[in-house]
Write a structure and sequence with these properties.
Layout: H1 9-15, H2 19-39, E1 41-43, E2 51-52, E3 56-63, E4 68-74, H3 83-90, E5 98-101, E6 108-111, E7 114-118, H4 124-138, H5 154-171, H6 178-191, E8 202-205, E9 213-215, E10 223-225, E11 230-233, H7 240-244, H8 255-270, H9 274-294, H10 298-312
Antiparallel strand pairs: 1-3, 2-3, 3-4, 4-6, 5-6, 7-9, 8-11, 9-10
Helix pairs in contact: 1-2, 4-8, 5-6, 6-9, 9-10
Amino acid sequence: MAPAVVVPDALRRRYLGTRDGRAWVADLPGLVETSLAAFRLVPDPPGAAPWHGHGALVLPVRSAHGTPAVLKFPFPHPEAATEAAALALWDGNGAVRLLDRDAAGTCLVLERLNPDRTLLQADMADAVRIWGSLVRRLGLPGSDSPHWAAIPSLAEHAEQLSDELPAEWDALGRPFERWLLEAALEVCQTRGAVGRRSARDVLVHADLHYANVLARPGQPDAYAAIDPQAVFGEPEYAVAPMLWNRLRDLDASTPEDSLLARLEALCSAAGLDRNAALDWSVLREVTNALDYVREGQHGDAQRSVWVASALTGRGHPGIPPVEELPAA
């Protein structure tokens, strides 16, 4: 009998470089079969090709009662470990609804959204407005729910970066100017102090970019977030992915000013502090730049350096014009 799914080539290629990745790809067809039986679901339509993002296989399914849903199989990695807990805390308010999951967390049953309607297709003004409304809804304060145990502290993460970034910058050959590294370290010191807690700390979707906001079917202006990488901390941490994506939409004549104007618009729509959002975005892009250099993705590293530098108000030498940088 043919397997329920054939793993898409793009997803297969992405994970064939490591032992864990190869094992996950090899196990996926069997995991899909097991999960369909366990949750009493069938592919919808029969023989449907799976969807996939950067780190998960997603299969459209339907229940015995005819309810549309999707089965999601995320690659097991630390950033995916918070997904089920965050979705349970949000319970469908601003985020895709978690309908069920297996005990090991290898498979999630989620409500089915419209993959063809994301904020990538939306006019920028509409995208900013919709994103801002979601940030307000997703920013839950802490509670006594056991799901919070899976959500890491943002302040502790920033404190850890203050130790790691200088050594990594040096080990990678000092790939950008020291002043940019120091700007990131200042953020670590001011926003990641030991034991820091703020009355403003909330549940934050740390990967809330345009492609991770999908429309709810049959509801013209209803959108929901997917693929959370959740942290507990200042809500302004959510802004950065909306800056480093869709750079082609910036005003080509004054891209740095246009980027700062987008930052202002996002903060206004979501009720965020502009300075905190700028700080976190600089730190995130400096961290991203080092990650890209380590992985040999030098064009992406240059894009991150451009964004971080533009936010500080300084130009970085050796970076191509924004229109020549690779899209995120």
